Amino acid sequence: SDAMSLMVPPAEDELLCGSYAESESSARSAMIVARGGCTFERKALAAQALGASALVIHNTLASRYSLNETTGEPLWPQDKFDYDCNFGQATLTDSDMSALSLPYQSYDPNNDSRLSGDTDYNLCVKNDPSFASTCSSQRCLLTGRGNDRGNIACCAWDLHVWLYSDPSISHQVAIPAIFITMEQAARLLADLSNNAIHLQVGIHSRPRPSYNLSAIIIWALGVFIAALAAFLSAQDYRDHRKPMHPLPSSSSFAPTNERTYTAHQPSTSNSPPPDSLELTPLHALGFIVMASSALLVLFFLKIYSFVKIMYAFGCSGALTQVLFFPIYTKLFTSTKYKRYMSQVCINTPLCEIGAVSRIEVLSAMSGYAIGLAWLILAFTLRHPENNVFFWVVQDIMGACMCMLFLSIIKLNSIRVASILLIVAFLYDIFFVFVTPLIFKGQSVMITVATSGGPPKADPSWCEKYPTDADCQGGDPLPMLLTVPRIADYQQGASLLGLGDIVLPGLLLSFAARFDEAKKLVGFMRTGSATPTNRSPHTCPPDSPAGRICGLLCNGGYFVPLVIAYAIGLLCANIAVYVMNMGQPALLYLVPACLGTMVVLGKRRNELDDLWHGPKVIRAADAMVYGEEEFETPNTENTLSEGGGSVGAPLGTVEEGPDGDVPLLSLT
Description:
With 667 residues, this protein is of the alpha/beta class. The chain contains 22 helices and 19 strands. The strands form 7 sheets. The protein has a 5-stranded mixed β-sheet with strand order 9-3-2-1-10, with helices on both faces. The protein has a 3-stranded antiparallel β-sheet with strand order 6-8-7.
């Protein structure tokens, strides 16, 4: 607000607790009044009636005392809430007490001044000179307790407090009100009493951004990681297609109805990693059972520190494989140290580790060093998520974990995808929205995600004692991506769970592998990865609408599913702000991604093949990894983008007699 002159309450109502008729004042002014005597809202209503444009309430020692209306005995300040003897304590003699007017029946500035400051005028400093250095507020409160030497006084808290409303007041308070500490009030009142100073005040709120940019960043980060991890999961198919070269069709060794190609023979070097896993319906159900069990164990046992340790070591391995090993391999390939770094330096049968090269050791040292540094910060900082190194490394580790997961775990049919995603969809809804009805208002998902839920203690108490057990909690578990709110003094962060990336990411990975498998098998048939048999849908040519139509109706599945994932995640973020509460992202992602896959498959007459497991993926796996022959009938199970006949020799693709293109065999 604009600058205002500062004024004090009427002399007959120095605590501003009376009732006044509404009056208007042409001059803008702010009224300053001591705390105590009545509620904050009562003071604000009185100041408004007296024509003040704003109210400044300052803390006092006197406001911490009151009288029992029945007995007339003083009610002393409360230990830990109003004072703490651990930060300073002094014993006041009877002669010291005579300098005070007791009990506190009204605001007496003399009482506050005799118990404030860093000089001997402060009775606590007079009796204990160390009090001024141990007590940060340099103010003390009488405790109502004594010993053989006199009355005990302890260090007073001097902090900001919330200006709570008064439910008994029905009138609307329209002026702003703020609370200042005793230290701030001392400086302000000193300037006000100096007639040589023309004092003006202004009330300003700290600026906050109108838009939460971190929510946009976390959305873009989630879409990018899901798309990249899914795209890379099909890299084997792309790599296998590159070395293929068509031979001339006029070769005397090739029949006229065959096209012949040279390609690398499948070998053990192209075999899928031994720890890769193709999910089945049983795996999908088991995954949800294990996830639910783990969630309930964390909810009841509260072993959140154990989760941080396991996550740090797991992600360190992901950093090693996904980030550091490729970087070091690329770095040393072009140097004279290539042969040296590729040499085996460790060979041990322990845990089936086997031979380990120097570059693998260097990658592991780098990955686990970063993970250990992150773990140390997780246990030593009170709110580590506000540390830039911590949350950046956590996001990188999470991204690497998602990429490693999607490179190992595979879906080969949307039947399994439907079971997994629908059960996960119900799992999310149950643990977010239903469990509060079972566990007395506690959401299992939110409680676990925030390391036990928000602190149980009052914010004022936690400001005094941040290490108290009731002040713990609220920090998110690390199994998520996080981006702190940008330029927001109230802090906070935008979060996205890794499960909201990898579970829909399995479907995106399936779509990417299906598209690349069709290109690979189509190349073996025609010499080109461009589809030869398009869907019957016609789109307007040479126009943006036509290109979009072609992408959605006649193109692959991967790009439309990435778009669907982005839209679903955007809807989840919008729902967070509309409903002002956390949302299970799978509630929006599962219908968007799975629905898109089903609709496109139906329009392209491929839904049945997608549901039971596309034969083209089996054929591509056989070509890349040298798997056993896949027996398929020569009719019905056709490939829209080419294939080869079962039983044909390696390097040849034979068209079926009816134009159908059965699968390729590598026997």
